[in-house]
C-alpha cells in the first residue's frame, strides 16, 4: 500500500515541477490545478509532522491565491488567442493589399500597351491615307493615256508601287502581331482576375474554418474544465461517503461491544445472585474472568483503505445502501441496549449514545467554484477517514472552507 501511495505522489511531484518550471506566459489552467494538487500533498506532509493547527490560517489564503492565479491564467490565454487572431487578420489584410497593388500594376501595363497600340494604329492610318492619296494620283496619271509618258517615268512609277506594296505588307503584319499581343494580354489579365477571385474565396473559406475551430476549441476547453470540476466533486463526495461509512461502522462496533458488556454484566449479576442465594459467598474473581473471556466478542477493526483511486456510480449506490443498513442495525442495537438499561440500570438511561450525525455531502457544493478547494479537501480529508489524523475540532476551518 505504501508503494501505491508513493507512485502517485512521485507522479504528482513531477507534474508540479514541470508546471513550476514553465514561463509565466505559458501557464494554463491545468498547470494551476497541478500546482494546487502539489500544495495539497505538501499540506499532508505538514499535517503529518506538526498537526492541523499550523495550517488553519494558511489554507484559506493559499486557496485564494490559487483562485486569483487561475483567473489571471484564463485571462492571459484569452489575450494570447486574441493576439494570434489579430496577427492573422493583419497578414490577410497585407496579402489583400499586395494583390490589389499587383492588379493595379497589371492594369497600368495594359493601359501602356493600349496607348502604344493606339499610337501605332494612328501611324498606320496616316500612312494608309497617304497611300490612298498617292493611289488617286496614280489613277489620275493612268487616265491620261493619250499623253505619252517617257520610259524613265514609267519605271519610276512602277518602282514606287512595289515599294508601297512592301510597306503596306509590313504595316499589316505589324498590326496583326500587335493585335495578337493585345489578345494575349487580355487573356492573361482575365486569368489573373480569376486567380484573384479564387484566392478571395479561399480566404473567406479559411476565415470561416478558423472561426469554427476557435468555437470548437472554446467548447472543448469549457467541457474540460467542467469534467475536471465534476471529477473533483465526485472524488470528494466518495471520500466523504467513505468517511461516513467508517464512522457508522465504528459506532456499530462500539454499540455491539457495549451491548455485549451489558449482557455479560447481567450474566455476572445473575451468577452472583444465584451464588449468594445458595452459599452467601461471592464468586471468585477467576470465574468472573472466565465468564468475561468466554463472552468477550472478537471485534474486527473496521479500518478500510480510504485512498482508493476511483468510485463508480454503482459503488456509490452500494455504499449508500450499506450505510442505510448499518443505520438500521444501529437503531435496533440502541433499542436493545435501552431495553437492557431499563431493566438493570435505570439511572443511566440519560447517558445513551446517539448515532453521530452524518457529515455534509461534498457533492452539494456550488458548481461555479474553481475546483481548487475540492483539491485541498481531497488532499487532507482521506487521511482523516483512514484514521491517520484525528477528527478533532481543529479541522473545522478546512471543512468550512470546502462547504462555504
What does this structure look like?
One of its GO terms (biological process) is protein transport. One of its GO terms (molecular function) is dynein light intermediate chain binding. There is one protein chain. By secondary structure, this protein is an all-alpha fold. The chain has helices spanning 2-21, 29-50, 59-143, 151-278, 285-295, 313-344, 372-386, 396-403. The radius of gyration is 51 Å and the shape is rod-shaped. It starts with a helix and ends with a helix. The model is unreliable at 1-8, 280-309 and 347-370 (pLDDT under 50).
Task: Give structural attributes.
single chain, mainly alpha, protein dimerization activity
Taking the sheet with the most strands, its summary is: none
- The helix content, as a percent range, equals over 70%
Strand content: under 5%
Rounded average pLDDT = 73
Q: What oligomeric state best describes the polypeptide chains here?
A: single chain
Give the overall shape: rod-shaped
N- to C-terminal distance:
34 Å
Secondary-structure element series = HHHHHHHH
Radius of gyration: 51 Å
Low-confidence stretches: 1-8, 280-309, 347-370
* Class by alpha and beta content: mainly alpha
Work out the helix count: 8
* Strand tally: 0
What is the secondary structure topology, with strand pairs?
Blueprint: H1 2-21, H2 29-50, H3 59-143, H4 151-278, H5 285-295, H6 313-344, H7 372-386, H8 396-403
Helix pairs in contact: 1-2, 2-3, 2-7, 3-4, 4-5, 4-6, 4-7, 7-8
Overview in brief:
The protein has 404 residues and is mainly α. The chain has eight helices and no strands.
